[in-house]
Amino acid sequence: MARYFFDTIENGQIVRHDIGADLSLSEMREEARRVLPSIAADQMLSTDLNEFVVQVRDEAGRCVYEASLTLISKAPLSPA
Fold this sequence. Notes:
By secondary structure, the protein is an alpha+beta fold.
């Protein structure tokens, strides 16, 4: 097991997290993907195109994994 730190980028805003978690490689990847929908759900969406990223750092500070979610919203097309 290694210690990983999960930073988030929400529409360009970086939030560094300094509390790490001791996880296996597969657990780290699963956790990075798992948190993306909850991050997106908690945000007030200001645009129709929103990108959410989780960057995972190891204890040395190197980015070792990245997962992202793009949320596109638009009004329905009007009938012609």
